[in-house]
Amino acid sequence: MIGRLNHVAIAVPDLAAATALYRDTLGATVTDPTPQPEHGVTVVFIELPNTKIELLEPLGENSPIAAFLERSPAGGIHHVCYEVDDIMAARDRLKDSGARVLGSGEPRIGAHGKPVLFLHPKDFNGTLVELEQA
Ligand SMILES: CC[C@@H](C(=O)O)C(=O)SCCNC(=O)CCNC(=O)[C@H](O)C(C)(C)COP(=O)(O)OP(=O)(O)OC[C@H]1O[C@@H](n2cnc3c(N)ncnc32)[C@H](O)[C@@H]1OP(=O)(O)O
Ligand SMILES: [Co+2]
């Protein structure tokens, strides 16, 4: 069911500093920061030949990454994102298998303008999983 690895997300306390680290120290191609208010984060993508790294900084009062950064103030790997061909079929199959789909269970539009869903980390070996419509 899952296909390509779309991105690995890293939550960071200082997006400008993290972006500079990837751009200047690691020599990567980086995008401009993009606020995603409906997701409570500001995002920078690091573009690699075979996938992307998504740097996440909290945005607003109720950011879903705030508690994560309280637990890990220096930042850390927050989620992995896999592409699926049919996100509704994937969601229904996962729910039938007992996996917890986070939020309302309805896909929302993610950073690439495509529908995304999140799966509870406790159901996937302690890793928060994002699914993105391919
Ligand atoms: C930009 C848009 C989009 C894209 O297109 O790429 C994005 O990526 S948006 C990214 C941010 N959005 C989300 O993360 C949405 C989904 N997340 C959530 O709903 C919540 O963050 C959460 C996963 C339910 C966690 O909620 P939180 O309040 O932070 O923690 P809890 O106390 O409920 O945690 C319970 C349990 O799970 C562990 N945990 C929490 N987050 C993670 C994580 N990222 N990776 C691994 N484990 C995680 C937490 O430690 C708790 O464990 P125990 O203490 O053992 O109970
Ligand atoms: Co993501």
UniProtKB/TrEMBL annotation:
EC number: 5.1.99.1
GO biological process: L-methylmalonyl-CoA metabolic process
UniProt domain VOC: residue ranges: 4-134
Acyltransferase found in the keyword field: no
Matching InterPro entries: Glyas_Bleomycin-R_OHBP_Dase (IPR029068), MeMalonyl-CoA_epimerase (IPR017515), MMCE/EMCE_epimerase (IPR051785), VOC_core (IPR037523)
GO molecular function list: metal ion binding; methylmalonyl-CoA epimerase activity
Catalytic activity: (R)-methylmalonyl-CoA = (S)-methylmalonyl-CoA
SUPFAM superfamilies linked: Glyoxalase/Bleomycin resistance protein/Dihydroxybiphenyl dioxygenase
Superkingdom assignment: Bacteria
Keyword terms: Cobalt, Isomerase, Metal-binding
NCBIfam families xref list: metmalonyl_epim (TIGR03081)
Family: Belongs to the methylmalonyl-CoA epimerase family.
Protein name (Swiss-Prot/TrEMBL): methylmalonyl-CoA epimerase
